[in-house]
Amino acid sequence: xxxxxxxxxxxxxxxxxxxxxxxxxxxxxxxxxxxxxxxxxxxxxxxxxxxxxxxxxxxxxxxxxxxxxxxxxxxxxxxxxxxxxxxxxxxxxxxxxxxxxxxxxxxxxxxxxxxxxxxxxxxxxxxxxxxxxxxxxxxxxxxxxxxxxxxxxxxxxxxxxxxxxxxxxxxxxxxxxxxxxxxxxxxxxxxxxxxxxxxxxxxxxxxxx
Length: 209
Prior knowledge:
Layout: H1 2-22, E1 25-26, E2 40-41, E3 53-56, E4 61-63, H2 64-67, E5 72-77, H3 84-101, E6 107-112, H4 120-130, E7 135-138, H5 141-150, E8 155-157, E9 170-172, E10 176-180, E11 184-189, H6 195-208
Parallel strand pairs: 5-6, 6-7
Antiparallel strand pairs: 1-2, 3-4, 3-7, 5-10, 8-9, 10-11
Helix pairs in contact: 3-6
C-alpha cells in the first residue's frame, strides 16, 4: 500500500511540474517554424537545450553533437519508473515508427535521471525491448544534472524504501523534446499528445526545414 501511495504521489507531482512548466509559455513567435506550433517557450526556443556529455549503452562518452545528429525525440526518465516512463516511451517510439512509414527518420532518445541504477547494461536491455533504435543515455550525477538543466527538465530522487534500500522513486517532468540538427530544440510534447498528433507536428517541422 505504501508503494502504491508513493507511485500515485509521484504521478501527481509529475503532472503538477508539467503544469508549472507550461505557465512559461506564450503566443506564437516570429520564426520559420511558427506555422508548426501553437505556442513557444518564454525566452524563445533557443533558451532550451545546449551542450551535454553523457554515457551511451556501450559505456562510451558521447556529446550532444554526436547524439543529436539527426531529428530526435528526447525524453528524460528512468528504467525503474513504474508507469509513466514506459507509457511515454512506447508512445514516442510509436510516433517514430509512424514517421518511418511516411518516409521520415527520427531518432528516439532516452536520458536517465537515475544514474545509480541505470547502468549502460540496464539501459540497453530496457531500450532494446521498446525499439531497436531507442538510444539510452546515462552518466554521472553531474553529467545528468547538466543535461537536465539545459532542457529545463525537473527531477528529484526520493529516499529509498525503508524495507528495500534498492527501491525508490524519482519524480521528473514528462515532456518530450523535438530537436533538429543545426537548429537545436524545436518543440515539446506533453503527456496527453498522442502518437498521431506528434507525427503530424514533427512532419510539419521536418518539411519546414
